[in-house]
Amino acid sequence: MTEPITFDGRVAIVTGAGGGLGRTYALELARRGARVVVNDLGGAVDGTGSSESAADRVVSEIADAGGEAVASYDSVSTVEGGEAIVKTALDSFGTVDIVVNNAGILRDKSFAKMTMGEVEAVIDVHLKGGFYVSSPAFRVMKEKSYGRLVFTSSASGLFGNFGQANYGAAKAGLVGLSNVLAIEGAKYNIKSNAVAPIAKTRMTEDLLGPLADMVAPEQVTPMVVFLCSEANEFSHEIFTVGGGRYGRVFIATNEGWFAGADGAPSVEALVDNMDQIRDISDYVIPLDNNDEIMLLGQMLAG
Ligand code: NAI
């Protein structure tokens, strides 16, 4: 059996922790000994408005259960907001060990109708928010050679979903960010992973149909809590989590078709080999750029 996962002495920031999934992460991390910054702007699902009550409520819940937490009402969507969130952790608890980038909003529209305002609002919170909070935190983590980062992706970004061009692009972008931080953080014991959750929250209750009542946020919590822990040695990975299913999503490439080193094939020759180009019966999961370049290198070397 695995040793109990605890967070004594650890400081965690959970963004968007005033409700939904983030609240469950904050509660469980605190229950297991972490001191937690409960960050939430407290606005509506579309990101409009703000209120201190969402974060305050979760801080009270943690305190009532004997845990330690502090509220932060800053928005993840600005440089200053991200810095203020990390500063709250440093001022209140002296450091930061864990960041769960979870805050999120929706502005769904089919692409032909989507305005650039709707694109920017969503990219600002999800993708830029991931940078704004993780960047000051990463510097602290690098200095102390310890850190755990979790980014919240989504099936909408990994696989696509109608009406979510803005959201899907942001959520796929976070995987790119997580992958690079996993590589850059490796020698500092900073692990970075992404999760794609499925859970009934105010964001999804109208979207999930009959599935809604079978996917509780608490079923996602164990994976995120594990990824935040010292026991987690995995990095650079994507986990899909919902309704009791825990799986891995991965970005892989096949051997493909090697046309030869000299000259470029004609378009027709390429088309003739489309089956082999698309064949995924065999694949590798490159862990960085070089892994893929090595694959080509082997072919070029014959
Ligand atoms: P939620 O709406 O309950 O939680 C999101 C929280 O983020 C809210 O409390 C909101 O006030 C906060 N927030 C929004 N903008 C903020 C900002 N600028 N700064 C700080 N806080 C802000 O929704 P849910 O479902 O708990 O979402 C959590 C994360 O999981 C989001 O990133 C969402 O996109 C993602 N997700 C959720 C899925 C689901 O099935 N519930 C599916 C895939 C991804």
Indicate the percent of residues in helices: 40-55%
Count of DSSP H/I helices? 10
Low-confidence stretches: none
Name every ligand kind in the structure.
1,4-dihydronicotinamide adenine dinucleotide
Shape: globular
Oligomer: single chain
Mean pLDDT: 97
Briefly note the structural class of the backbone: alpha/beta
Distance, first to last CA: 47 Å
Number of DSSP strand runs: 10
| Topology as a string of helices (H) and strands (E) | EHEHEHEHEHHEHEEEHHEH
Q: For the largest sheet, list the strands in their spatial order.
A: 3-2-1-4-5-6-7-8
Summarize the biggest pleated sheet. 8 strands, mixed
Radius of gyration: 21 Å
The share of residues in extended strands comes to 15-25%
Which tags fit this structure?
globular; 10 helices; 41% helix; two-stranded antiparallel ribbon; eight-stranded mixed beta sheet; binds 1,4-dihydronicotinamide adenine dinucleotide; 10 strands; 302 residues; alpha/beta
Describe this structure in a few short sentences:
The chain is of the alpha/beta class.
Describe it for me?
The structure is a single chain. This protein is α/β, with parallel strands linked by helices and 302 residues long. 41% of the residues lie in helices and 16% in strands. The protein contains ten helices and ten strands. The protein has helices at residues 20-31, 53-64, 79-93, 116-144, 155-158, 165-185, 221-227, 267-272, 274-278, 289-300; strands at 11-15, 35-39, 68-72, 98-101, 147-152, 190-198, 237-242, 245-249, 253-254, 283-284. The chain has an eight-stranded mixed β-sheet with strand order 3-2-1-4-5-6-7-8, with helices on both faces. It has a two-stranded antiparallel sheet with strand order 9-10. Helix 2 links the parallel strand 2 and strand 3 (68-72). Helix 4 runs parallel beside helix 6. The longest helix has 29 residues, at 116-144. The termini are far apart. Residues 15-16, 18-22, 39-43, 45, 47, 54, 75-77, 102-105, 125, 152, 154, 197-199, 201-204 line the site of 1,4-dihydronicotinamide adenine dinucleotide.
